Amino acid sequence: MERVGGGRWGEFWRRASCCLQSAAATLGRSTAAHEALFMVDRTRVPVHERLSKNPCWLLPPHHRLHRLNRRRAWVGSRVSSEVQKKAMENGRGSSCVANDERWSLAGATALVTGGTKGIGHAIVEELARFGAAIHTCSRNEAELNKSLKEWGAKNFKVTGSVCDVACRADREKLMEDVKSTFGGKLSILVNNAGTGKPMVAVTPDEYGFMMSTNLESAFHLNQLAHPLLKASGAGSIVNVSSLAGIVGIDNITIYGATKAALNQLTRSLACEWAKDNIRTNCVAPGSIRTPLMEPLLAMEEFVAKETYRIPLGRVGESEEVSAVVAFLCLPAACYINGQVICIDGGKSVNGNL
Ligand SMILES: NC(=O)c1ccc[n+]([C@@H]2O[C@H](COP(=O)([O-])OP(=O)(O)OC[C@H]3O[C@@H](n4cnc5c(N)ncnc54)[C@H](OP(=O)(O)O)[C@@H]3O)[C@@H](O)[C@H]2O)c1
Question: By its UniProt entry, which InterPro entries does this protein fall under (predicted)?
């Protein structure tokens, strides 16, 4: 036990210090902390001298403890705000842009696969309206040229290549085109091109076709685009998946499997490439009126069955998907990463029979 001075006052301080030390020890405080807190004197400086140097000791112990904790919290917050500042300086999820820039894609460059029809067509137009320059592709040259002409008339900045995304050499050629068109920098990649049809008995060829069009193409294009997205300083990938990758749907098993894999690819890349300031997200549409769905939506029975489970009571339109894709690409969405967002009128959450 330490001596804290002589006489009655010394005895008083010794006893008080003793009681408070044991109380603190019971609370599990570290020795150093409660020695500091309860003025244990290892230097044998008389109490009145220590009190005159630091009047804080006149405070009751719980007030001193409160001050100590406040100091710890302050040091902690300084450390975490340094980490935060560093991540922001490196540009990771940086929101440090002016207010009007948060809702604009002026100066952004984008590659949207499968832009001549359906959802891809709507995405090209949506991004163009936000000010982005876009490169797109499809397998049909005549349809591609027709679309490019229409976009030119609307003053949209859109270029295009003929490309089958299921073919590796075509994908490499496409990315070369993108690199030279945009000077080596790509802000946005939308992996939209995909296909699916009901299949009961899936042949090996059909299986391979579905895998290479829906999954391998997205994986490989993401890989090829990585240096360009990184070079842009703030990249955004949006993969177009499907509700069939989240819930089970009869007769489109392999289609569903490719889309479920795309969802997981999204989550993994979101973690892996965040360090390069590339965000990766995914949209999962339900039934959307497009040329792909036209034959099915022409059947009354199919529409009735399909809309029965959709709380909004109707199928969606391509523009209702493209709006979400554009939002995910905007600087305003800079803290959204690794998400799979259903655009299905509420079908995926409907628990009613
Ligand atoms: N519509 C829906 O209800 C729905 C629901 C969930 C998910 N999705 C997904 O949304 C995406 C778009 O579907 P959509 O309904 O808009 O289809 P769509 O109407 O058939 O349009 C597909 C577009 O992609 C192009 N494309 C298809 N295969 C291609 C390939 N191998 N290489 C290059 N381009 C290709 C097509 O042009 P070419 O044929 O000339 O090549 C066309 O421009 C797909 O990934 C699909 O799985 C659609």
Answer: NAD(P)-bd_dom_sf, Sc_DH/Rdtase_CS, SDR_fam, TR
Q: Write the CB contacts of 329 (distance below 8 Å, at least 6 apart in sequence).
A: 105, 108, 110, 127, 130, 132, 187, 188, 190, 236, 238
Give yes or no: 308 in active site: no
Calculate ∠ Cα 115-120-123, nearest 5°.
Answer: 110
Q: Which residue lies with its CA nearest to atom 18 of ligand 1? A: 292
343 lines ligand 1 (CB under 6 A): no
| Tokens linked to 205 | 């060829």
Segment holding 343, helix H or strand E: strand 340-343
d(CA 14, CA 10): 6
Please indicate whether residue 143, judged by its CB atom, sits closer than 6 Å to ligand 1.
Answer: yes
Ligand 1: atom nearest CA of 287 is: 3
Residues 60-97: tens digit of each pLDDT = 655 655 665 666 555 555 556 776 677 666 666 555 57
Q: What is the pLDDT of residues 287-345, one digit of tens each?
A: 999 999 999 999 999 999 999 999 999 999 999 999 999 999 999 999 999 999 999 99
Q: Is any atom of ligand 1 closer than 6 Å to the C-beta of 296? A: no
Candidate of 125, 139, 212, 255 to mutate for ligand 1, largest count of ligand atoms within 8 Å of Cβ? 139
Question: 139 C-alpha to center of ligand 1: Å?
Answer: 11
Q: Which two structure tokens, joined as six digits, stand for 112? A: 């949207």
Q: Which residue has the tokens 């009869």?
A: 250
Token look-up 């009047």 returns 55
Q: What angle do CA 193, 268, 279 make, to 5 degrees?
A: 70
Tokens found for residue 289: 């009126």
